[in-house]
Automatic annotation (TrEMBL):
It is an enzyme of class 3 (hydrolase). Coiled coil: none annotated. InterPro entries: Peptidase_M20, Peptidase_M20_dimer, Peptidase_M20C. PANTHER family: CYTOSOL NON-SPECIFIC DIPEPTIDASE. Belongs to the peptidase M20C family. It catalyses: Hydrolysis of dipeptides, preferentially hydrophobic dipeptides including prolyl amino acids. CDD domains: M20_pepD. Its EC number is 3.4.13.18. Keywords: Cobalt, Hydrolase, Metal-binding, Metalloprotease, Protease, Zinc. Transmembrane segments: none annotated. It comes from the Bacteria. SUPFAM superfamilies: Zn-dependent exopeptidases. This is Cytosol non-specific dipeptidase.
């Protein structure tokens, strides 16, 4: 199945990508891909080691004539987001990604592709394996757990790397050169509730919200895409307000950094209200579909009669749950006042779980402003605490402050214009790149980020552009040839 991928140009990159995608590599379960990278480096007779948290470092000496150039760190992360369509049977822990070519794009069959950040990893591997590419001394840094906490970058100790310049290969627009990014913090709300026996003379229904685009909760948040948790809450709130709906279970969303595509709930209503509830809810669903028609044409909401559950939530806690999710912001909080069209601060209500007497709501708040990040996090905290939730912050990581005097930024931007006859889009992004974290222990390291065009990251619609990957590869080779002298 992946043979057609191996014949794409540049073959050296796509073959490495196919090899990498044969290795399961979920976040926090990177043991196999770590060993894969160690074996790769040692088979090339290059200095290869693993640091105390699991990052892999491979060093390659400069080619002849480039010994006096500044040492370059090539950096990408090994883990990938695991998302699949509800009707796709796939075991991420055991299977390699199944890829296919559709026109100018490489996609996976019903799952995420892993181009984020697998194409960056593959490009670095191709550079390390090459005997023809000219380059200075190289340090390849393959970090772990970028997608679920950036613990690899956080755990990288100062002094391990000797490089002067870092090229992060984790940007998803091929005409963009990254010079800054947002930081983030997880806002987690929890509480317990009393389970009550399901009232008699009630009817039970399973409600499902499906078919949304999903996507990257940072880069795609500006698009105003549907959030399954918010849509489900709107339906449940309406049913509770008008018909006394009772909740038995909710399971919405999945990963913290993915816009929720699906949500499922089990509810009951009094038999006397059953027909009116169904009519009212169907009308509401049609209204919601109409609101999202242009950007979420595949949104599907189903209501199916089921057997009665054993229990439902305590009524007071249920009211607080629905009102707090309604009050909690999802989407863009503030646009950057300094950079046009850049989201400064946002929130993604990523996960809602209600089951067996416990509630857990997970949000990922992002901002390039540390003070506004805290402001929004406190706003969410307040909304949930008013309903009796215990709220904590975790997984906080800093943003990457732009350096307008960057030497490597000038080199890369000028090279782009020379190669393509137009200026690159030099910008900060509303995503969590590892540069900000790495810069804490390596404050003197000069950094930029770039990469091939990738669409739909963090969703089963993830796809990598083939001509863009060719463009990215040529750009990387030219940058390595033109790095500054010491």
């Amino acid at each position: 199945m992946n043979s057609e991928i191996r014949n794409l140009a540049p073959k050296e990159v796509w073959n490495m990508f196919a090899d990498l995608n044969a290795v399961p590599r979920p976040s926090k379960k990177e043991e196999r891909v770590i060993q894969f990278m160690v074996d790769f480096g040692k088979n090339l007779n290059l200095e290869t080691f693993v640091d105390k948290v699991g990052n892999v470092i491979i060093k390659k000496p400069a080619t002849k004539g480039f010994e006096n150039r500044k040492t370059v760190v090539l950096q990408s992360h090994l883990d990938m987001v695991h998302q699949k369509n509800a009707d796709t049977i796939f075991d991420f822990d055991k299977e390699g990604i199944k890829m296919k070519v559709e026109g100018d794009w490489v996609k996976a069959k019903g799952t995420t592709l892993g181009a984020d950040n697998g194409l960056g990893v593959a490009a670095i591997m191709a550079v390390l394996a090459s005997t023809e590419i000219e380059h200075p001394n190289l340090e390849a840094l393959f970090t772990i757990d970028e997608e679920t906490g950036m613990t690899g970058a956080m755990g990288l100790e100062g002094g391990i790397l000797k490089g002067d310049i870092l090229l992060n290969l984790d940007t998803e627009e091929d005409d963009e050169i990254g010079m800054g990014c947002a930081g983030g913090v997880d806002v987690i709300a929890k509480r317990t509730y009393a389970e009550e026996e399901t009232p008699k003379n009630t009817s039970a229904f399973a409600i499902s919200v499906k078919g949304l685009n999903g996507g990257h909760s940072g880069m795609d948040i500006i698009k105003g895409l549907g959030n399954a948790n918010k849509i489900m809450n709107r339906i449940l709130f309406d049913g509770f307000t008008n018909f006394g709906l009772r909740i038995s279970e909710i399971n919405g969303g999945s990963l913290r950094n993915a816009i929720p595509r699906e949500s499922f709930a089990i509810i009951t209503v009094d038999n006397i209200s059953k027909e009116a509830f169904h009519f009212e809810t169907t009308t509401l669903i049609n209204n919601i579909k109409q609101e999202f028609l242009t950007i979420e044409p595949n949104l599907k909401v189903d209501i199916e009669a089921i057997s009665s559950p054993k229990s439902v939530m305590d009524l007071g806690v249920q009211e607080g749950l629905l009102k707090s999710i309604y009050a909690a912001l999802n989407g863009v909080y503030r646009m950057s006042p300094d950079i046009a069209d850049l989201v400064e601060t946002s929130n993604n209500i990523a996960r809602v779980i209600v089951k067996d007497g416990a509630i857990k709501i997970g949000c990922l708040t992002r901002s390039s402003s540390e003070t506004n990040k805290l402001d929004l996090a406190n706003s969410l905290k307040s909304a949930f605490e008013l309903s009796g939730f215990d709220v904590g912050f975790s997984g906080e990581y800093p943003g990457w402050q732009p350096n307008v005097n960057s030497e490597i930024l000038d080199v890369v931007a000028n090279l782009y214009e020379k190669l393509h006859g137009e200026k690159a889009n030099v910008a900060a992004c509303h995503a969590g790149l590892e540069c900000g974290i790495l810069g804490q222990n390596y404050p003197e390291m000069d950094m930029v980020s770039f990469g091939p065009t990738i669409r739909g990251a963090h969703s089963p619609d993830e796809r990598a552009n083939i001509p863009s990957t060719q463009k990215f590869w040529k750009f990387l080779i030219e940058i390595l040839k033109n790095t500054p002298e010491k």
